[in-house]
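Supplementary Text 2. Reproducibility record for the structural model of the 325-residue chain.

All settings were left at their defaults, and a single model was retained for analysis rather than an ensemble. We include the record here because the model underlies the residue-level annotations in Supplementary Table 4.
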Amino acid sequence: MSSPTIKLVAAEAGVSVATVSYVLSGRAGGEARIGEQTTARVLEAATKLGYRPNQQARGVRRGRTEQVCLVLRQLDSPWAKAMADEVSRRMREIGYSSLILLDGDWSKFLLGRGADGALIDHVDPASDGPMLKALAQQGIALVVHSNELEPDGFDVIRSEEQTALADAMDLLTANHTRIACLQLTRSDSRYAAYRAGLERASLPYDERLVRTTRNSRDLAYRAAVDLLDRDDRPTAIFACSDLTATSAIWAGHRLGLAIPQELQIVGVGNTPDAAQSDPPLTSVGPDAVFPAAAQLLLTRLQNGGPGRLHEAPWRLHRRASAPSR
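Retained model, structure tokens:
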């Protein structure tokens, strides 16, 4: 069945379409002077029919949707959850709703005025840069995570990761010679940091100690069990995300390994999950990036402007899963 329309709500309530529009937009008590009984009848009809206003159409008419969207790489990662929680909390403070686009065509959605703004977790600088500029010129508030793009009518959050990633590997190589890697993909810069760390320590690269997880909790857990359930197991794991690192902690617990006495683990992201894991996870990541990103989007919605650059340098946060030397 098709979604109920405003005309059906009007027919059910026995009023005009204009009256329904005034009531559902919150303007019934203004110049329209629609009575309480009529207002109640309209609201009852809308509830009965399951009517929901078309926010995108309203956005075209009114010039705003009172919605923002988050463009995320994946939904179940600690990073995505922390970002979504913080942005939605801040948007509620100004009466905005937050939507999540997962591997969707965010440019088409925003060009159609599906939202007043967006926080975009990943972009391709070459192909997405011109589109971001075009969207900003239409008045859409944008905050983008990128180490390559410059602000151009939109805000950019830039993270310098390599120094902190090197610190994490140096921490592990100071005490271990068999260090495994739970990588996301072979093209990931974090995997490159793992290779570089071994080279700095003059340790040989062993292909048998590397597993590709695609940031899947299930794949990471099974890969960690496979690595650790053998006589020549690694004594440390460099995990390229906090999600894969916490999966490795679970695998260590299952196999009865004491962490950090028998196994040390470092993750990447510094998400809330890192501090809350058992034991707390040593992790590479920025300080307080989630509230900072939410504040940037809020400020951009309210004030606009030429675009700002927010530096979010990463550092090694040392916790119990891989204590200090």
